[in-house]
From TrEMBL:
<keyword id="KW-0456">Lyase</keyword>
<dbReference type="InterPro" id="IPR013539">
    <property type="entry name" value="PurB_C"/>
</dbReference>
<feature type="domain" description="Fumarate lyase N-terminal">
    <location>
        <begin position="17"/>
        <end position="328"/>
    </location>
</feature>
<comment type="pathway">
    <text>Purine metabolism; IMP biosynthesis via de novo pathway; 5-amino-1-(5-phospho-D-ribosyl)imidazole-4-carboxamide from 5-amino-1-(5-phospho-D-ribosyl)imidazole-4-carboxylate: step 2/2.</text>
</comment>
<dbReference type="InterPro" id="IPR024083">
    <property type="entry name" value="Fumarase/histidase_N"/>
</dbReference>
<dbReference type="InterPro" id="IPR020557">
    <property type="entry name" value="Fumarate_lyase_CS"/>
</dbReference>
<comment type="pathway">
    <text>Purine metabolism; AMP biosynthesis via de novo pathway; AMP from IMP: step 2/2.</text>
</comment>
<dbReference type="InterPro" id="IPR000362">
    <property type="entry name" value="Fumarate_lyase_fam"/>
</dbReference>
<keyword id="KW-0658">Purine biosynthesis</keyword>
<dbReference type="InterPro" id="IPR022761">
    <property type="entry name" value="Fumarate_lyase_N"/>
</dbReference>
<protein>
    <submittedName>
        <fullName>Adenylosuccinate lyase</fullName>
        <ecNumber>4.3.2.2</ecNumber>
    </submittedName>
</protein>
<comment type="function">
    <text>Catalyzes two reactions in de novo purine nucleotide biosynthesis. Catalyzes the breakdown of 5-aminoimidazole- (N-succinylocarboxamide) ribotide (SAICAR or 2-[5-amino-1-(5-phospho-beta-D-ribosyl)imidazole-4-carboxamido]succinate) to 5-aminoimidazole-4-carboxamide ribotide (AICAR or 5-amino-1-(5-phospho-beta-D-ribosyl)imidazole-4-carboxamide) and fumarate, and of adenylosuccinate (ADS or N(6)-(1,2-dicarboxyethyl)-AMP) to adenosine monophosphate (AMP) and fumarate.</text>
</comment>
<dbReference type="GO" id="GO:0004018">
    <property type="term" value="F:N6-(1,2-dicarboxyethyl)AMP AMP-lyase (fumarate-forming) activity"/>
</dbReference>
<dbReference type="Pfam" id="PF00206">
    <property type="entry name" value="Lyase_1"/>
</dbReference>
<feature type="domain" description="Adenylosuccinate lyase PurB C-terminal">
    <location>
        <begin position="349"/>
        <end position="469"/>
    </location>
</feature>
<dbReference type="Pfam" id="PF08328">
    <property type="entry name" value="ASL_C"/>
</dbReference>
<dbReference type="GO" id="GO:0006188">
    <property type="term" value="P:IMP biosynthetic process"/>
</dbReference>
């Protein structure tokens, strides 16, 4: 048995196979049928505007000889993409097999629907004679750029953003909850000034929140201006129409996008590069989070909740592996590689147009698919861990040397205030503590050996590694 002979076809990529359940929401926006459906929406809305005009021209037809479409005719046109299902996908594919051109196949598909209009409406209609209005004065990229922008915008707003915000919200709740929970910091992997777990999570809330805001403020540009961006065909056919205003109104009011007035045959894709760059940057912040939490788990700061029936290792039954964080790491890397390629490739085109962007953009779904899969894994991972407070306290209690920083800083202040015996504070503390394990008694003896004033000595003796967290708890409030 050849696997290629099995029907339905076996998925080649894990996004459509093993991970289909986690990424299927993107099919609605970034699959080939989704793109073709959006192309139909653009085409029929353009027909409606050509026939019925817009407020700025008094709702008069833009093309001579075309009568305004009545409400039933407009509804019939707008229903064409909404009816686009399995039968329609097959019919479009049949047209494309002949035309070898996906947008032309969309045009012919709409022609088929116009042939059925009178029967569907149960009365004569001018729609049956309006095939020449389909794709009027358009180049394929007029349709493609608007369709792609709408597909991406919907995918971001309805899938990626909610998932990213779920991560931020989960981290925000945990940061608030653990804002006062002491944590031994490590710099260069070595014990350092203590912090709180909440403050460390709040750092990620702040970082990710900035990127989410960038995405929310993202422009999605579109154009409809002809073969080389000059409205040449438009003006040749209908010279009395203000086509630049028609273009602006169509892109902004009918398509819900931002108008790009200056393009070659293609919309320049700069907005896509900006968006994918932001998401790639977000991926890298999330990757950093995954690695940090993985190491916290390894260190015992976080404990994982075992999944009943799950196997951590095929040979070591005791193991609970941090696989959600590892899977998220890998998928974030895959997403970044595709997003970075999209960002670099899409902003370049030979003169008016080449087709490198066409095949490249077919991978937008994969790029965002790996990102969404990573978000899904990461959220599951975050919901399956909790801090081990006992282990965290034990780690802090085993590292009294971290109090060398506040002691030597207090010595500096005392030296500046004129107290004797406080010279070379850094060197004196280093001699006592560097590379050594010390405890409370060692710290207190060192403090007593110096001529601190009574108040300073008492304040330093009251310090413990768990209590030396500065303003960490208060800083959590700045994460939003």
């Amino acid at each position: 048995m050849k696997l290629t002979d099995i029907s339905p076809a076996i998925a080649l990529t894990p996004l459509d196979g093993r991970y289909h359940a986690q990424t299927a929401r993107l099919v609605e926006f970034l699959s080939e049928p989704a793109l073709n459906r959006e192309r139909m929406r653009v085409e029929v809305e353009w027909m409606v505007m050509l026939a019925n005009g817009y407020a700025g021209n008094g709702w008069q037809p833009l093309v001579p000889g075309v009568r305004p479409l009545d409400e039933e005719e407009q509804a019939y046109l707008r229903a064409i993409p909404e009816r686009f299902g399995a039968e329609g996908i097959a019919r479009h594919a049949a047209h494309e097999a002949v035309t070898h051109h996906d947008v032309k196949a969309v045009e012919y598909y709409i022609d088929d629907e116009l042939d059925r209009a009178a029967e569907a409406l149960g009365r004569p209609t001018q729609l049956s004679g309006l095939k020449t209005l389909v794709h009027f004065a358009c180049t394929s990229e007029d349709i493609n750029n608007l369709s792609t922008a709408r597909c991406v915008k919907n995918a971001i707003e309805q899938v990626w953003l909610p998932d990213a915000e779920s991560i931020v919200e989960t981290l925000t709740i945990r940061a608030d909850e653990y804002r006062e929970l002491p944590l031994l910091s490590l710099t260069h992997g070595q014990p350092a000034t203590p912090t709180t777990l909440g403050k460390e999570l709040a750092v990620y809330v702040y970082r990710l929140g900035r990127q989410v805001r960038h995405v929310k403020n993202q422009e999605y540009l579109g154009k409809i201006n002809g073969a080389t961006g000059t409205f040449g065909a438009h003006l040749a056919a209908c010279p009395d129409v203000d086509w630049t205003e028609v273009s602006r109104v169509f892109v902004t009011e009918r398509m819900g996008l931002d108008w790009n007035p200056l393009t070659t045959q293609i919309e320049s894709h700069d907005w896509q590069a900006e968006l994918y760059g932001t998401i790639s940057h977000t991926n890298r912040i999330l990757h950093n989070l995954c690695v940090d939490i993985w190491m916290y788990i390894s260190r015992g700061v976080f404990v994982q909740v075992p999944v009943k029936g799950a196997t951590g290792s095929s040979t070591m039954p005791h193991k609970v592996n941090p696989i959600r964080f590892e899977n998220a790491e890998a998928n974030l890397e895959l997403s970044c590689s595709l997003l970075d390629t999209l960002s670099a490739t899409l902003v370049e085109s030979r003169w008016q147009r080449d087709l490198t962007d066409s095949t490249t953009q077919r991978n937008i779904g994969s790029a965002l698919g790996y990102a969404v899969l990573a978000l899904n894994n990461l959220l599951g991972g975050l919901n399956s861990i909790h801090p081990d407070e006992q282990a965290m306290r034990a780690e802090l209690d085993a590292n009294w040397e971290v109090l060398g920083e506040p002691i030597q800083t207090a010595m500096r202040a005392c030296e500046l205030a004129g107290l004797p015996g406080m010279e070379q504070p850094y060197e004196k503390v280093k001699e006592l503590m560097r590379g050594k394990r010390i405890g409370r008694e060692d710290v207190e003896e060192f403090i007593d050996s110096l001529a601190f004033d009574e108040q300073t000595a008492a304040r330093l003796k009251a310090l413990t590694p768990s209590g030396y967290v500065g303003a960490a708890a208060d800083l959590v409030s700045f994460m939003r």
